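C-alpha cells
===========
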Amino acid sequence: MTKSITSKTLPIAAIATAIFALTAATSFAADNKTLSWEFGDGQAHGWQIVSGEVGFYDGGMASATYETRDAEQATFLARSPMFRLNGGGGLKITLKGGMGKRLPATARQVLAKPRTSNGGPMGVALRRVTDDAYVLFFEKSKTHEQTITVAKEQLDKLIERSHDEVYTLDLVDGLHGGWGHLPLVRASVSATPVDPLPKPPAGFGAPARHLFLGSKHGKLEFDKKELWATPGSKVSLTLFNSDEMAHNFILCQPGDKVANELGEHVMGNLAEMIKAAYVPPDPRVIAHTDLVAPGTSDTIYITVPNTPGEYPYVCTFPGHYLLMRGVLHVIAKLPEPKVDVLKPPMPGDAFRVTVTDRPIIVRGPLHGSGPASICVGSLSGAQYAFDPARCIVAKTWMSPGGELVNTKPAWDGRGGAFLQMMGQGRFSAGKDAKPLDVGSGDVVPDFRGYEIGDDGYPSFHYKLGDITVRVRVVPAGDGLDANFTLKPAPADATYTLGETQSIGEAAEQGTAVKVGANFTVHFKTK
C-alpha cells in the first residue's frame, strides 16, 4: 500500500500554538466576501474548462463559437474556482441562449456522455466538491436573457449543514439543436475563495478527487461521518479547522477497535505524543494530517488502499477520539450522492405547482412531451408527463419536495412558452419513440382520454389499430410502475425498453420484451 505522507515530529512551540490558540479561533466563513465573474470581456477569469471548447459571444462564456453554437459537439463543462459559502448574502447568475434542460445529479454523469444530444443537459449547478453532487441547479425557463437569484436564507441552509463545505459553480451544455447554447453572462455568490491546494508529492500524479473535511463548531465532530473512494485511487484530503481547539485526521486500517486503541494510546502517553502531534507510531495508521490549529487547514495526498472495506478515521487530539470519527468507504462504484437540503430555485414562485396530500394533474406544453402534455405529480415525488399525441410516458423526473412544474413561462403575461419541470430529470423519450408494438403495423395512436381513480392517479385510454390499451402509472419502489392492459390480447406484442426502464429482469435499453395482455413497465426515478 502506498502512502503519500509519513509521521513527523513537530516542534513543541508549534504544538503549543495549535493547542492554545483558542483566542485566535476564527471561522473560515467569517468575512462576507462576494465572488463575482463577468464574461463580457472574453476572458474565463479563472474558470477551468473541464470538457469541450470555450467560446465567448452574446456577452457571455459558452461552448464552441457563435457559428457552431447549436451544432453537435463535445459536451461543455466550465467550472469556477473553489469556494466556501460565508453567509453574507445570496447567489445570482445571468444566462442567455436557450431554455434549460434537465441536469443530472452529479458532474461525473455529465462527463459520462462526451457528446451533446438533442435531449442533453443544459444549465448551471452549485457543485459540492467532495461527492461531486449538484446540490442546487438552475435551468432557464425562457429563451434570451434571464437572471436567477437565490436568497441568503436558502444558502444558509447549506451552511447549517457545514460551514466548511467546498463548492464550485458548473456551467453545463450537453444540448444541441435549436437554441442549444447557454452563454453565462455573469455570476456572483457570497463566498470565500479556497486557496489553491499544495502540489502533490513528487511522483504522486493528479488526484482523481478532492475530499474536504471540516469540524462542527463546539461539538467534537467532523462535519462528515462518511467519505467514499474507489480502491487504489489517488485523492487529496483537506481538513479545515474553524473550531476553538486543535484537531487532526488519522486514517486507519479496518477494525472496530482500531480508532479507540489509537486514541487510548495517546491518552496514556501524553508526554511522548505531544512531540508527535498526537499521531501514534502504529502500523495501522495509513495516513494523517498535521495537528491543525484553529483557523487553519492542512492538505494531504493519499493513495487509497486496494482492498475494499470500511476504513475508520479519527481525531486523536487528547479525548477527541471518543466522538470525532468517521468511516472511509472503499468501494468499486461510488454511490449516488444524497441531496436533500435545497429545492431547485425556479423563477415565479406563485406559479409553482406542488403536490401536497393528493396527486396533481397539469395540462400544457412541455418540451419533449408535446403541446398538450398531461403532467402528473405523485405523492412520492416521482413525477411524469404523458404525451397524448404519441400515447407514451414521455418524461419522468424526481422532485423530493413535491414540486411538479413551474407554469409561469406558459401562463404568465403573454405566455406561449413551455411549462418547466421542477426537479431532476430521469427519462426523456426520443422524438420517434414507439415503445409498444402490438403487431398492427405503423398505426397512429388514437387517444381516447383518461379517468381519475379514487386515489387521484389517472388511467389513460388509447387504441393501436384494433387493440385497446389502458395504462395506469403509479408510484412504486424507486420510481413509477406503468401498468398496461391490452384488449383483446395481441398474439405477438413487444415493448422496447428505454433508459431507466425495466420489465421484470429485463432492463437493458433497446431490448424488445415480449408482453401479453397485462404487463408492467418500471421507470426508475431515484
About this structure: Confidence is low (pLDDT under 50) at residues 1-30, 341-348. Residues 351 and 412 are 8 Å apart (CA to CA). Helices lie at 12-20, 107-111, 152-161, 258-268, 270-273, 408-411.
